[in-house]
Amino acid sequence: MTVGVAVVGVGPMGADHVRRLHERTNGALVSAIVEPDPARAAAVAATAPGSAVFTGIEQALAAGIVDAVVVATAGQHHSAVLMPALEAGLPILCEKPLTQDSSSSWQILEREQQLDRPHIQVGFMRRFDAEYRQLRQIVMAGELGELLMIHAAHRNPAAPDWYTQDRLINDSVVHEFDVLPWIADSSIGDVEVRYGRPNAHSPRELREPILVLFQLESGVLVDVEMNVSADFGYQVTTEAVFERGVVRIGDPAGAQVWRAGASRRREHVDYTTRFRDAYDDQVQSWIDAVRSGALVNGPNAWDGYRVALACEAGLAAMNGMRSQVRSPQRPAFYS
Ligand code: ISE
Questions:
Q1: Fewer Cβ atoms within 10 A, N terminus or C terminus of the chain?
Q2: Is 229 in the pocket of ligand 1 (CB under 6 A)?
Q3: Of 230, 149, 193, 190, nearest in space to 315 by CA
Q4: 10 Å Cβ neighbour count for 69?
Q5: How many CB atoms are closer than 10 A to CB 14?
């Protein structure tokens, strides 16, 4: 069976998914592109010949050509796409965040639980990155003793126009709130935010870089430098400190060239290249899960909800409060 996928929202992320599904994913085709901007829709549809263009998810679903849905609109529009897709009983890969806050995420969980099993996978693609996976394995195997601390850096070259202060948490640190507890196999207890010296090159309305500190229930202490005006390139690194060693991941691969008294290695400039393999593996394994009937093979809506709770604590922490992350009971549906 070839899975006909509707990609909803074809900004940079959605357009990247369309290309990936069309060019590099086995067992899938882009059957529908849902996008209200006609020029953007036409430009992206041209990269996936055979796809039909719609302005709303309901029309695409009514056309009877959609087996699965990728949600790549801005986060505040996710609920409006997730609800009809769940209503139609379709498998969904939803870009992060699941929704814009925990109460709307909870509504999604309630609706999803009316189905026979989880249908939503959340696009926390870092869980498919080979180095994060290796680090998790080292933690799980205990080969370096217990994990004690994690130092992470998440640096973007520059913030886009639409980037606002809350996005430091909801759009960017959201990844660390998912992947670092996953690596450490422990939930976030509380969150604190400290501000660095302001970067004169940051957009005026942004107060950053920030240092996000969180303690996991296991006691592991995590610090994340979130910096969206790093200028030199796109860099996401993690250094994990164990009882008997240190593991560092995320440094650029490829040739290191020594020349004229200096050594040089290329750095990434955006996430689509830094995490290209992780995105490809995520989408391929989701399509495989859809074809096998498993529907989800990766972080699910419950994970998305837990991260939404962490983001709320992170937003409160940006206002100076050290904030506890609520830890509700996981419904049996997600176990
Ligand atoms: C963006 O939305 C992403 O998901 C990137 O991975 C992240 O590095 C960036 O900060 C976000 O704005």
A1: C
A2: no
A3: 193
A4: 28
A5: 22
> Residue 189's closest CA among 323, 308, 98, 311?
323
Test site for ligand 1: of 100, 156, 225, 270, most ligand atoms within 8 A of the Cβ: 156
**Tens of pLDDT along 125-178?**
999 999 999 999 999 999 999 999 999 999 999 999 999 999 999 999 999 999
List C-alpha distances in Å: 117 to 98, 288, 293, 332.
17, 17, 10, 11
Global confidence as pTM: 0.96
The sign of the CA dihedral 71, 278, 298, 157 is negative
Q: What is the pLDDT of residues 23-42, one digit of tens each?
A: 999 999 999 999 999 999 99
226-247 pLDDT, tens digit per residue, is 999 999 999 999 999 999 999 9
How far is the centre of ligand 1, averaged over its atoms, from the C-alpha of 211 (Å)? 16
C-alpha 92: how far from its chain's center? 14
Neighbours of 253 (CB within 10 A): 9
> Distance between terminal CA atoms of the chain?
28
DSSP code of residue 331: P
Pair of tokens at residue 270: 């955006």
User: Which residue of 125, 155, 171, 208 sits with most ligand 1 atoms within 8 Å of its CB, as the best mutation to test the pocket?
Assistant: 171
Q: How many CB atoms lie within 10 A of CB 58?
A: 15
Q: CA nearest 68: which of 77, 79, 76, 57?
A: 57
Residue 66's closest CA among 3, 112, 121? 3
Are the beta carbons of 5 and 71 closer than 8 angstroms?
A: no
Nearest ligand 1 atom to alpha carbon 172: 10
The residues facing 195 across adjacent strands are: 210
